[in-house]
């Protein structure tokens, strides 16, 4: 798989931990076990666009007061939504 950063063929699927700012800017949360791409050549780890969109959409559609300081990605994605879809797009 080609790395988007160094364009080598050393990228492979992995998981990592990221810190994400809430939409209102009040704080950030730690999300663990997020699918990512990790490059064995340059060492960069990054989320693909579809994962970023899922996180951003979920943060807009849930009650963020339910979220503590950290959360596992699979639990985060399963949180009940206040709205059925993102009307802000």
UniProtKB/TrEMBL annotation:
Name of the molecule in the record: YokU family protein
Domain of life: Bacteria
